[in-house]
Design goal:
By secondary structure, this protein is mainly alpha-helical. The chain has helices at about 5-15, 20-30, 35-50, 50-65, 70-90. Helix 2 runs antiparallel to helix 3. The N and C termini lie far apart (about 45 Å).
């Protein structure tokens, strides 16, 4: 894990507002705790709140704050969630 000073520097470089900073910390925590339901909910809600570009920036910032093992888990869960969403969209058409 990175030092708190380095974490703060990374977060500052993204120029997130306060709500987005708090969101990022919840996002990181959901991955570190291996909570797929919360992680997927935060992933979708960040896209709904701020758009895809900001959701990707939050995910990118998380990659710097987490261990490689944690991020690999998060990426696998995100891939499954995206595939399920695509299937859901196909069935609703």
């Amino acid at each position: 894990m990175l030092s708190s000073k380095l974490q703060a520097s990374i977060i500052k470089s993204y120029k997130f507002n306060l709500e987005q900073k708090l969101w990022l910390m919840k996002y990181v925590e959901s991955i570190a705790k291996r909570d797929p339901k919360l992680f997927i909910r935060l992933l979708h809600e960040s896209d709904d709140r701020w758009g895809t570009e900001m959701a990707l920036r939050i995910h990118e910032a998380a990659t710097y704050l987490l261990s490689r093992k944690d991020m690999e888990w998060g990426n696998r869960v995100a891939e499954v969630a995206i595939q399920l969403l695509r299937l859901e969209n196909q069935f609703t058409r």
